[in-house]
């Protein structure tokens, strides 16, 4: 389950920074590599900082594993991968550059989905094919 950041409650408690660590099930349709799937949940480790104007900066790391057929030789393989998370939230609607939030609560789902999409490789290679390409 993806937690929310309750900006109103945190501001009322005079908390302006914090950390979140959680796991969530990735959407299978994010993967466009044939015969490859997510193995288990995505792990997220995030920090947030609330500014005086109620804007919120969220940053951190995602880690996940992919398994399936090597895109070159079709040998079964597995890869542990990581990606960065970085987003800025403003009260109200998204402006196309920053994420928006309403009613004092930030839903991290869209940020995590976008970050995961950017972290995905275009193909999955086994160790032998990776070495062959690097030669």
Report the count of strand segments: 8
Helix/strand structural class: alpha+beta
What proportion strand? 35-45%
Tally of domains: 1
Description:
The structure is a single chain. By secondary structure, the chain is of the alpha+beta class. It has one domain (4-134). Helix content is 19%, strand content 44%. The protein contains three helices and eight strands; from the N terminus they run βαβββββββαα. The chain has helices spanning 7-12, 109-119, 127-134, and strands at residues 4-6, 17-24, 36-38, 42-50, 56-69, 76-91, 99-101, 105-107. Strands 2, 3, 4, 5, 6 and 7 form a six-stranded mixed β-sheet that branches. A two-stranded antiparallel sheet has the order 1-8. A hairpin with a 5-residue loop joins β4 and β5 (56-69). The longest helix is centred in the last third of the chain and has 11 residues, at 109-119. It starts with a strand and ends with a helix.
């Amino acid at each position: 389950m993806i937690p929310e950041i309750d900006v109103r409650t945190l501001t009322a408690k005079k908390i302006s920074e914090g950390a979140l660590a959680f796991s969530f099930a990735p959407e299978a349709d994010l993967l466009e590599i044939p015969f490859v799937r997510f193995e288990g949940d995505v792990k997220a480790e995030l920090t947030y900082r609330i500014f005086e104007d109620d804007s919120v900066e969220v940053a951190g790391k995602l880690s996940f594993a992919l398994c399936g057929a090597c895109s070159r030789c079709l040998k079964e393989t597995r890869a542990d991968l990581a990606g960065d998370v970085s987003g800025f939230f403003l009260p109200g609607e998204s402006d196309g550059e920053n994420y928006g939030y309403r009613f004092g609560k930030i839903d991290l789902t869209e940020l995590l989905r976008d970050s995961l999409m950017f972290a995905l490789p275009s193909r999955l290679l086994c160790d032998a094919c990776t070495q062959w390409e690097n030669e």
